[in-house]
Design goal:
The termini are far apart. The N terminus is likely disordered. By secondary structure, the chain is an alpha/beta fold. It is globular and about 70 Å long. It has two domains: about 120 residues, Urease, subunit C, domain 1 (Roll); about 280 residues, TIM Barrel (Alpha-Beta Barrel), CATH 3.20.20. The strands form four sheets. Strands 1, 2, 3, 4, 5, 16, 17 and 18 form an eight-stranded mixed sheet that branches. Strands 11-12-13-14-15 form a five-stranded parallel sheet. A hairpin with a 2-residue loop joins strand 2 and strand 3. The protein is built from 16 helices and 18 strands.
Length: about 450
């Protein structure tokens, strides 16, 4: 049956004509010229000194040690400051950071969405201009951020984390039936937090559904977890065939699969299945890390150094202690593998309260100083992530170079007091971040 013409036109408008994004708005705006700045470009350890950077619309269009003259440009004198890329959190959960575990699992989603809006703004104000969201129904929040309705970082969404029966996303009460057997979706599944599937057909359906919703990458859980109630850390989850099915679905859409994984057996099976990125990895052995370096597999790792947390049960804290012990060992191994592709993520999850989760973003950066220099830390949070974000191919919601200060890169920039490669305080102390720009738009400016 054909729609009446006016109805069809309205539906077409709703489906394919969203409001202009900040990027589109910025493209029609005036130029912004930073003068007399030192630059950390996200890649090189040596700063470029006393240069000028021109931003036109949402793009860096010129970098020069000579003066740049542009009529009607907004000029920002950066004398004594360093210009650097906005930071990238490669593993976070905007929808889960401001609420309790019980609220994630059992409560209506409205409050979580409100807290997600708060967390998104706080994240941006920490100088984090891009995140990979690794589980959660973040699609509407991403849209509101992109349209300029609320402030927040760029979001690369995964949608619901996909796991097997007894896997990381299987948070059913003991009396709840198995959704794979009954066909009745769990509450976390209904809320877009995590799906429980078994077998190739359901894996294909679950992965394709996230792509339909707008996922830029697919996330599976392929080993045990700390927070899970049914999955010991040593377990290997899914079969190679199930993992290959998810990879095929993602590759058919031009993107990739990343996995929650701790132990070596599970991670090696996932790599055999074609995944491109490992989230966590604190229990990996050196042979697996060497394989990852050789095959170009990404490691998105977090400094889990708190071995006991008050919000966890005794069983969860027992697993936390194991992961905590493994964190330092893997970081030491990373230092001996220069070809391993490593990015930093926080995995902030269940830190209820306004701004509590995002304070952990700062704390985690500071914890990394036990193993890495400020340069190595900032490279993991900027230039290292550029290529990882581009793995999304045509599903990349923000095509272009992110995480670097170079000509034609997207204009996500921080102007900070001091040299961040000498002292991480330049970015971990909010007061030292004088300007925060995302997509060519200034969201914070505290210069006199």
């Amino acid at each position: 049956m054909a729609f009446p013409s006016k109805t069809a036109a309205l539906i077409a408008t709703l489906l394919i004509s969203p409001a202009l994004s900040n990027a589109q708005d910025a493209a029609t705006g005036g130029a912004i010229l930073f003068t007399n700045v030192d630059i950390f470009d996200g890649v090189n350890e040596a700063l470029m000194q006393d240069v000028s950077v021109l931003v036109t619309g949402n793009t860096i269009t010129q970098i020069s040690s000579d003066d740049i003259a542009v009529a009607d440009a907004q000029v920002i004198d950066g004398s004594g400051y360093t210009l650097m890329p906005g930071m990238i959190d490669s593993h976070t959960h905007l929808m889960f950071s401001g609420i309790t575990f019980a609220e994630v699992l059992f409560q209506r989603p409205g409050y979580g969405m409100i807290q997600g809006v708060v967390i998104a703004e706080q994240t941006l104000m920490n100088g984090i201009t891009t995140v990979r969201d690794m589980a959660g129904d973040v699609f509407d929040l991403k849209r509101a951020i992109d349209e300029g309705t609320v402030p927040g970082p760029r979001v690369y969404p995964s949608g619901a984390m996909i796991s097997q029966t007894s896997g990381h996303a299987d948070f059913r009460l003991p009396v709840e039936p198995n959704p794979t057997i009954t066909g009745k979706m769990t509450v976390p599944g209904q809320k877009g937090a995590g799906l429980v599937v078994d077998g190739v057909p359901l894996m294909l359906a679950a992965a394709r559904e996230q792509l339909r919703l707008g996922a830029s990458q697919i996330k599976l859980a392929i080993s045990g977890s700390v927070s899970g109630i049914n999955d010991p850390l040593d377990t290997t989850q899914f079969t190679v065939e199930e993992i290959e099915a998810a990879v095929a679905a993602a590759e058919n859409w031009g993107t990739y699969v990343t996995v929650h994984g701790y132990n070596a057996r599970a991670v090696n099976q996932a790599i055999d299945g074609g995944v491109k990125s490992i989230e966590h990895g604190q229990l990996l052995d050196e042979a697996t890390l060497q394989r990852m370096a050789k095959e170009g597999i990404w490691l998105s790792i977090q400094p889990f150094t708190l071995c006991n947390e008050p919000g966890l049960t005794p069983d969860q804290n027992a697993k936390q202690a194991i992961v905590c012990e493994g964190t330092g060992k893997v970081y030491e191994a990373i230092k001996s593998l220069p070809d391993l592709k490593v990015v930093h993520g926080t995995d902030i999850f269940i830190s209820p309260g306004k701004g509590i989760g995002v304070s952990e973003e700062v704390e985690q950066l500071e914890r990394l100083l036990d193993w890495f220099t400020p340069y190595e830390i900032l490279k993991m949070t900027t230039g290292n992530a550029t290529e990882l974000l581009q793995l999304s191919g045509p599903r990349n919601p923000y095509p272009g170079v992110i995480g670097r200060v170079e000509v034609d890169a997207l204009a996500d920039l921080l102007l900070v007091e001091g040299n961040p490669l000498e002292s991480l305080d330049a970015v971990t102390d909010r007061d030292n971040i004088k300007i925060i720009m995302k997509d060519g738009v200034i969201y914070k400016n505290t210069l006199n």
